[in-house]
Structures are given as structure tokens and as C-alpha cells.
Amino acid sequence: MVEKFDAIVVGAGPSGNSAAYTLAKGGLKILQIERGEYSGSKNVQGAIMYADALEKIIPDFRDDAPLERHIIEQRIWLLGDDSYIGTNYRSESFNSERPNRYTIIRAQFDKWFNEKVREAGALVICETTVTELLRDGSGKVYGVRTDRENGEVHADVVIMADGVNALLARRSDLQKELQPQNAALAVKEIHFIDPALIEQRFQVKGDEGVVIEMMGKVTGGMVGTAFLYTNKESLTIGIGCLISDFKAKGISPYKLLEDLKNHPVIKPLIQGGEVKEYAGHLIPEGGYKAVPQVCGDGWMVVGDAAHLNNAAHREGSNLAMTSGRFAAETLIELKRQGKAPVAANLALYKKKLDDSFVMKDLKKYKNLPEIMHMSPQFFNAYPDLLNGAAHNLFTVDGVDKKSKENQIFKSFAKRRSVLGLVGDAFKLARAFR
Amino acid sequence: MHIVVCIKQVPDSAQIRIHPVTNTIMRQGVPAIINPYDLFSLEEALRLKDRFGGRVTVLTMGPPMAEASLRKAMSFGATDAVLLTDRKFAGSDTLATSYALTSAIRKLHEEEPVDLVFCGKQTIDGDTAQVGPGIATRMNMQQLTYVAKIEDVNLDSREITVQRRSEGGVQVLKSRLPAMITMLEGSNSMRFGTMDDMFRAARTPLKLWNKDTCVDDEAKVGLKGSPTVVSKVFVPKPRAEKAKMIEAEGGASAQAAAAIDMLFTTYPKLANDLVR
Amino acid sequence: MSQAPANPPPAKKAAGGRKFELSEELKAYKGVWVIVEQERGKVHTVSYELLGEARKLADKLGVEVGAVILGAPGPFINEISGEAIAYGADVVYTVLDAALAEYRTEPYSKVMTDVVNTFKPEIVLLGASTLGRDLAGAIATTLLTGLTADCTELDISPENRSLAATRPTFGGTLLCTIQTLAYRPQMATIRPRVMQMPERDGTRTGRVVEVTPNLAEDIFVTKVLDFIPDSDQEEAQLAFADIIVSGGKGLQKAENFKLVWDLAEVLGAEVGASRPCTQAGWVTSDRQVGQTGKTVRPKLYIAAGISGAIQHRVGCENSDVILAINSDPNAPIFDFAHHGIVGDALQILPALTEQFRQRRLVNRKAS
Ligand SMILES: Cc1cc2nc3c(=O)[nH]c(=O)nc-3n(C[C@H](O)[C@H](O)[C@H](O)COP(=O)(O)OP(=O)(O)OC[C@H]3O[C@@H](n4cnc5c(N)ncnc54)[C@H](O)[C@@H]3O)c2cc1C
Ligand SMILES: Cc1cc2nc3c(=O)[nH]c(=O)nc-3n(C[C@H](O)[C@H](O)[C@H](O)COP(=O)(O)OP(=O)(O)OC[C@H]3O[C@@H](n4cnc5c(N)ncnc54)[C@H](O)[C@@H]3O)c2cc1C
Ligand SMILES: Nc1ncnc2c1ncn2[C@@H]1O[C@H](COP(=O)(O)O)[C@@H](O)[C@H]1O
């Protein structure tokens, strides 16, 4: 006999866990299916977790969630060949009782979250891949098929939380193919290292942590960013660029990561560590314009699978968790009102997204991906110019400051016309506005 | 048919690293798995269940988190699971472990007579291959280790015929139930459970047993019941020097020539063996 | 199955340390024993390796080395007794009965339990072979004593004269030393090919004690119907080969493994492999070297395209000379190989083959 549930959640990443948790708490009969050995086993993330999104789902998560360090300092660096120029922001107030951002190890965090899902009463089945959506003649989704024998399971609604590849939706023609210019490929490593070294090199104590976001020469002119996060006993280091750029340039992501690790300003930070884990993963970076249809008859799609990712601010898991929660709340409300989960009613989910930071932020940066993509100078010329300028300015060599300013200005004008400079500034300002 | 399969949850040794600074084991993020050798025994037990019907009970002694390995075993098709867990068991060596497991098997036997006990050939953490023989001896069961193949089982005559790997060949043994069997690695490969197995694994309540449930003599478990004492744990000394690199200009053939020259000059005795 | 007679009470631990007095009963346990593993007249070489090791331990303790030979009565028993003495035994116990012709757990463990309880050795060593591990696990339970499996190093602890048995754990990432303090005998199984083979000394003399257990075959349930020797003789040879050429995943595909076979042929060597290769079916699994494969100790071990993971390392690191070929200069294999070539195995292997071939020709002509 085929089992039937109120909802099936496909995937146990942050979005799927949020949806399943909220649904189960709401008293619905939930099945969650994850293809990995356990929730988190296949997940790769930098990883910064934003407390606010999780607090709205599990208010007291700090009691037992496996958190690494809370962030007290953010550095943004523009890397030159052997230098960086950047800004640091550090504040004692981030040491509050309820810090806003944490580093986490996804494998542990997801596992913890999924345990909460089970405790909330959802049935969780791992090591099982959903291979297709079951749809009736009208296209309405009524369940899924998995790769196991007797693998058919039915439900009123299927929530697709299967990550950036969104294979389920694409296979059912609910989404178009992922475009190479809309996805970045990121590779990262975890380096185990003596916590004393972390404290010393990053000037932190206890559970304090630091995040370094980087752009510049390390991406070889491609659109991309790099990052270095402090965990309790390890460092996460990674770099990512648009797939379309990797394709065009023929550079391998592994090579980029090697270059990053060997960069003269990075190397001393990670020295003495031992590489524990290496992984690569896609990030949806197409922004607002790449967000597909997010619901229909008997289905919703959440998180990365719905392309809900804010590349400009490196936010993903918070959008994932929030969208998962919205999808769940939508369903709980419909159920309470006795309404069928058809497209017209599920549209409430889309409205919740639109009314929240999720779509508002994405909309704000809607032109950013294109600008970045059309303007290689951000990743190429500018890092050089700014690092060169700083170098010039901070080298005391008897040249008067006015002449130095002139030299710097000339160097900018030479690499990029004054008009171009102004234009870039304008474009960026618009994109960020 | 009632079959008990003893499984142990172990850290995945492939993923254990020694902390470069503190020289201790880094368990952080090291996944716990079912001892890989136990899976060959579990699969064999499931095949017998497929053939003769009945129950396959998986049994483990370990901390509460070992529940995961029992659920996993059920997701392959095991029907019941017992988690034997008690602080008093901590520090048990193989003699004490086999005592505790035997106590649990006896209790299972009272519920429904046990025809076969399967153990793994050995574990990858303890690596002793002692617990199986310990159980067989205590249960007074026939002990059939390193079994490459179960040729035949006859439930009427209660006879079992197996091929047992021994040094230099294979013994064909005819024995009788009840027996304790450990399977050789590679003798079968684990199945992919059905969706029904997955549902059962997620839903079936475990039997949670502790020392009071089945153990008669508390002095025989835990540190107290263990004759062996671990007196030292240490990291193997890394070889003082790294390999001497053979370098030569002129590609592979030059490198090969340099390597052979090096072997012949450094190890003149070896030269005889090499160009006999 | 034979039950152990009521075991003597364990010794009392003196407060706070590993120093303590054994009870008088346990003090009576004297001598270091090796159970000599013979099947159909053939002795497993690990038994001789162990006699060499037992000799060292016994000398430290100032006691005798005993060798126990179990089997059906036959002419080869005398021969084996002689060999055991030549390799270091002071006294040989021959335990002979038709029921012991082939190894079976039940009769072997029954008589061994009785023999140990009669003669009371303080240490009992067995090879970590299928026989040794099967038997040791059973008799440690009937004797209710401690057993340390798969050891790679043995010593006598100076503070309490007990056996300090060292063995790898967690797949070789760590070593641990285990002692059985308050129980006797102290038992250990030892990995074949890890201990040095002792020099054979034909002039040594020793006593032979015959034990006739008078077993009644009909009490034993398990019968040996047949013994199928490994038709594939190569299997046994890997562990005893003088030269081994091993290939790893770095060879990239099955066809390339031929390069390993070619070099092995020229050298008269055995072929080994890392696990991914045996798993992929490039070579049969009996050629796998490592934790879950064979432990080898050749004079020369050539590793081509093998990264040197700990599970592989433990199987080959006792080789006299290790030559590693790997394209990655940072591959862990270079941490324990004696010599290294950084390069493409697909090119170096044929180059080695070619040049060894030439040298052999030159050599043949010269002689
Ligand atoms: C290198 C890197 C660094 C990042 N850093 C950050 C950061 O610092 N902060 C941040 O907020 N975000 C970050 N992100 C983004 C963040 O990881 C994602 O936005 C987030 O994981 C999305 O969650 P999700 O649940 O939608 O998808 P996922 O986390 O991808 O989860 C999808 C789950 O579905 C499962 N699945 C897939 N297909 C199937 C199927 N057919 N059947 C069953 N199960 C299936 C998968 O196994 C997986 O567990 C980063 C991403 C990367 C790649
Ligand atoms: C419980 C357990 C037991 C195990 N038991 C064993 C065991 O008994 N034996 C065993 O071997 N493994 C065992 N393993 C597996 C072990 O962990 C490693 O995965 C395995 O040894 C790696 O094999 P490899 O070196 O051939 O492959 P890889 O690790 O993939 O290494 C390939 C190497 O080839 C090099 N290379 C690539 N191309 C070339 C080229 N053209 N020329 C030269 N070099 C090249 C690479 O630099 C690399 O170093 C076990 C694992 C577990 C978990
Ligand atoms: N704690 C345990 N719980 C259940 N079974 C065990 C346990 N320890 C060992 N075993 C079984 O005994 C086998 C041999 O273990 P070992 O003697 O530790 O090598 C294992 O493969 C298991 O089948």
C-alpha cells in the first residue's frame, strides 16, 4: 500500500529542514527525504549562519546547536598580487548574548537541525533519492517516486528543497536549465589548526570569530570571491567564480584555491593546518531575474532550488531557511482554512517572499550580476590599481604627497579611462541602491 | 528462523586524523559507521531470512548514539534491534564485551530460540576478532569463523555446511545449529533496502536494554570485568627521514636508469635478486 | 564444549599503580609458549617468527620457551619438533590425537584449555592467522584471561614483568600497548611477517613432552568434509615474495596495470595493488596490500601510483626497501618510502622494465 502524507519535503538542507520542522510543529504528517547518508553529509558551506532567520524557527537554538564561533570582526579585502587593501569592522557589541552571525560546520549543523525535525515528529528518510514528481493528467503533483523498490509515496504537497541543481523541478519542466552565468562554482577546504594559533593570528579569544571576504587578483580576472572563516578548531577557506567564466578561461577551481592558499597575505594565516575536507558546490548567483516560478498545483520550491540567494552579501542559508518557513506556514494556514493546495492558494507563499527581505533584497541587486559580469575590471584592474595606490601612498620615499596623488590618479586613468571610472562607480551605486 | 547479528558502531578509520599539534585523535566530524565487516554478516543473515523466513535481530552494545547504526541495519532489512547500553559497560574489553553480548543473546533466546549468531570477522577500531569466538564459547555454539560461503542450511536436521577460509585453502565444514558465524569480507555485497525497509527503520521502536535487563554478574562487565589494560596509546613514530628523491635530467628513462643505479650501489645484495 | 576449571582468583591490585603482587597460584604460571601452527604437515612461518620473539621474552624473564604442536600422530611431528627446537624452543609439547588432524575450533580449544591449565605457561603466543585468531579467541574465553590481538611488537614491562603487547589501532593511525596484569596466562596473537625470522640453529637441544588427550571424535559436532587447497598458488606467494611491484589508482585504468605486470615479470616479482585497484577489479583481491589485504615484507617494494594512505602503509612499511613512483611530490607515500621518483608512472614503469631487461641480458652474457 502506498503511504500518504500531508507533505513531502525533498532535501534536508537548511531550507528543507526549516520547512519540515515548521510543518511538523504545526501538526502535519510529514515525510522528509534526503539523498545523503544524513542531513549535512552532502552539504558544503563556508559557512556563516545568520541567527535571525533561525531564531524565527527555533528561538532557543543557541542552547544546543553546534555553533563554532560568533563573528566579531568582518574584513573585506581586495587582493593584489602580494598585497591587500581593505576594511575591517570589529565591534565588542557583537559579543552580545544573542550574536547575529556564527560560523558553523554544515555537516554538524544540518545534522543537529534534522534531529530537531525528527523530534518535532516528521518522518525522515535518508540515503534515498527522489527521482521524479508524480503528477496527474492535469499536472497536479500528488507525490514522488524514489530510487528504492516500492519507492512511490503520495502527499497533498511536495516541497522541493533539493538545492541549486533543482533537478526535480527541471525534470518536470517546472524550471529551465541552470545557466552557466547564473551559477558560481565554489571550492573550499577545512584546515584543522590549533585553536591557540587562531586566537593569536586573528586576535580573538574564546568563541570569537573573524570573517574575511576577498576579491581581486586571485580569481584571475573572473567574476568571483574568496573567503576565510574561523571555526573553533579549524579554518574554512574557499573561492568561487561563475561557471561561465571558468568555462571561458579554462582555469580549474582547484588551481584557484591553491593560488589563494599560497597568496603571501593568506599563507601565514593558514600555515600549520591540516586539510581535512575538500569540497566543491554550486551557488545560485543569477539574482532576482533568475528566480523561477516558486509554486503550482501541489508543489512549492524553496531555498537554492528556487534560486533564492543573495550573492552580493553572500547570504544563502538565511534565505533558504526563511523560504522554507514561509512554504510551511502557507501550508499550515491553508490546512487550517480547509483550502486545497492548488496554485491559486499556494500563491500566498510567493506573496510572503515578496513582502519580506528575501525578494526585496534580491530585487535591490537585480542588476548586479550583469554589471559584475560585464565589468572584468572589478576583478582585474581595480585590485591592482588600489593596491598600487596604497603601496605608493604608504611608501615614504621623499616624493611629496601631492605628486603621489597625481601619480595614483594617472595610473587609474591609464588603466581605465576617467569616464570608465565614473561610469563604474555610477553603475555600482545603482546596482547597490 | 531467528538470527542475531552483532554489529558495532565504529569511527570511520579512513577519516581519522591525528591532530598535527596536539598529537591526539581528531574526532571532530569523523562519521560513525557500522563496522564494515559486520555488513557481510548482516547481508548473509538477510539472505537466510529471505530463504527461510523469520527474524533478524541486530544487537549492539554501545553508547546511545549507536542507535543510528541499528536503524541503518534495519534500513537494509533487519527486523528488530536491541541497543545494549549502560555506563557500567564502559571500558569493557573483548572478554567483558562477549559476556555482555552473550547475556543479551540469552535473553533473546528466551523470547524466541536463536538458531544463528552472526558477528563481523573483526572490527576496524578494536580489530581483535575476539568477540565472535567469545560469544560462541560462552553460548556453547559451534564456532565458524572466516566463512566464505554458506553452502547449505537444513532446518529439519539443523545442519549447516560452510566453506571456511584457512591458511592455504578452504575447509568445507559440516556443523550444526545453533552456530556462531563470522563472514569473510567480499563474500557478498550489501543490498539496497526497499522503501518499506526505510519506513520500518525510521519507525520501529528499539529495545533499549541495560545491565539490569540481562546481565547477571556486574563484576564481569566494564573495566572491572576486563583482564586487559591499555597502558599506552601513542602515535607511530614517523620515519625520521623522508624518501630520498631520485632526480635525473632527461625524462623517464634517465630517471629509471638513475633509480637502478641507486638500488645497485646502495643495496648490492639486492642486485643479485633483481637481475637473476 | 570444554569448560574451564574454576579459574584462580585474579591478583589484587596494589593501591594506585601497575605494581602489584600476583597470587601464589598465578605466580606458578611460568614460561613463554608458542602454539606452532601446522596444517597437513606444513608449518606456518609465523610460528618460527614467534619462537624467535618468544626466545627474547623468555630470556628477559629467565624462563623457558615452550612450543605446542597439535595434530594427528604422524612422522612429520618429530620433524616439526626438531625445527621448533632449532628455532628457539626449550621444550616441545606434542599434543597428538586423530581428532586434531585438521584444525577445528572445538577439539583444539578443548585440548589447549586443558594443556594450559596443566602446564601453566605465563605467556601464550599465536600467529594472527585464521587459525591463530580463531583458536585464541576461543581459549581466552575458556581460560577467562586477556588476549591482545594482531600485535606488532612485544616486550616485557620492567615494572611488573608482564607482557607489554603493542598493536595498531584505528587502522594504524595509532598504536597502543596492552597488558594483562592480574590474569594468567597472558595471550597475544602476532601479525605474520612483522617479527624477524630467527636464525635456525640445528645444534640446539630441547625436551619433548608428549600429551595424549584421548579425544572421542563423536563428541565433536563439526566435521571437516573437504579441504580445497588454493589452486591459485600465487596467493600464498605475495606474503612471502622477495620483490613486489604494486600499482595504485594513479595508473588510471585497468589496461595500464599491464605495466606493473611487465616490470614484475622482468624482476621475477609478485604483483600487488592498493584497494581501489582490487575493488575496481583491475587485479584480484588476493593481491591487495594493506590493512584489509596482505601484510608484506619483501626485500624491495616498488609502489607505482599509490598515494600511501595509512591503510596501505601498514601492509608494506616493513619492507626492507621501498621505492615509490608518484607524480605528486607531496604524496604521503614519500613519508615512508626510502627512495622516491617524482614522475609519471605510466612512463617510468616501462622505462624500468626496459632497463632491467637490458641489465639482465648484460648480466647473463657476463656469466
Ligand atoms: C562554498 C559555499 C559557501 C557558502 N557560504 C555561505 C555562507 O557563508 N552563508 C550563507 O548563508 N550561505 C552560504 N552559502 C549558500 C548556502 O549554502 C545555500 O544557500 C544553502 O545551503 C541552501 O540551502 P538549501 O536547503 O536550499 O539547499 P542545500 O543545502 O543544497 O540542500 C539540498 C539538500 O537536498 C538534497 N537533495 C538534492 N536532491 C535530492 C533528491 N533528488 N532527493 C533527495 N534529496 C535531495 C541534498 O542532498 C541536500 O542535502 C554558501 C554556498 C557555498 C557553495
Ligand atoms: C577500513 C578501510 C580499510 C582499507 N584497507 C586498505 C588496504 O588494505 N589496502 C589499501 O591499499 N587501501 C585500503 N584502504 C583504502 C585507503 O584508505 C586508500 O583509499 C587507498 O589505499 C588509496 O589507494 P591509491 O593510493 O591507489 O589511490 P589514491 O589515493 O587515489 O592515490 C593515487 C596516487 O597516484 C598518484 N598518481 C596519479 N597519477 C599518477 C601517474 N600518472 N604517475 C604516478 N603517480 C600518479 C597520485 O598522486 C596519488 O598519490 C582502506 C580503507 C578503509 C576505510
Ligand atoms: N560492542 C559490540 N556490540 C555488538 N557487537 C560487537 C561489539 N563489539 C564487537 N562486536 C562483534 O564482534 C565482532 C568482532 O569484534 P572485535 O573482536 O572487536 O574485532 C564485530 O565485528 C561485531 O560483530
Give keywords:
heterotrimer; A: 433 residues; alpha/beta; 8-stranded mixed sheet; 7-stranded mixed sheet; 36% helix; C: 367 residues; Rossmann fold; 2 domains; 7-stranded parallel sheet; 11 helices; elongated; disordered N terminus; binds flavin-adenine dinucleotide; binds adenosine monophosphate; FixC-like_C (chain A); oxidoreductase (chain A)
What would your notes on this structure say?
Chain C: Belongs to the ETF alpha-subunit/FixB family. The complex is a heterotrimer of chains A (433), B (276) and C (367). Chain A is α/β, with parallel strands linked by helices. Chain A has helices spanning 14-25, 51-55, 106-119, 167-171, 195-202, 243-249, 253-262, 267-270, 317-337, 343-354, 357-364, 368-374, 381-394, 401-415, 418-432; strands spanning 4-10, 30-33, 48-50, 70-79, 84-90, 101-103, 123-125, 130-135, 141-146, 152-160, 183-192, 208-216, 224-230, 234-242, 274-284, 295-296, 299-301. The longest helix of chain A has 21 residues, at 317-337. Chain B has 276 residues and is α/β, with parallel strands linked by helices. In chain B, the strands form three sheets. Chain B has a nine-stranded mixed sheet with strand order 11-10-9-12-8-1-6-7-13, sandwiched between helices. Chain B folds into two domains: 2-220, Rossmann fold, CATH 3.40.50.620; 239-276, no CATH class. Chain C is an alpha/beta fold. Chain C contains eleven helices and 18 strands. Chain C is 32% helix and 25% strand. In chain C, a hairpin with a 4-residue loop joins strand 9 (163-169) and strand 10. Chains in contact: A-B, B-C. The A-B interface holds A 3, 37, 41, 105, 107-108, 123-125, 127-128, 146, 148-153, 190, 192-194, 197, 233-234, 272-274, 276-277 and B 17, 19-22, 26, 28-29, 31, 75, 192-196, 198-199, 202-203. Strand 11 of chain B pairs antiparallel with strand 13 of chain C. The complex binds flavin-adenine dinucleotide (2 copies) and adenosine monophosphate. One flavin-adenine dinucleotide binds at residues 10-16, 33-36, 42-48, 129-130, 161-163, 167-168, 186, 188, 238, 240, 281, 283, 303-305, 309, 314-318, 320 of chain A.
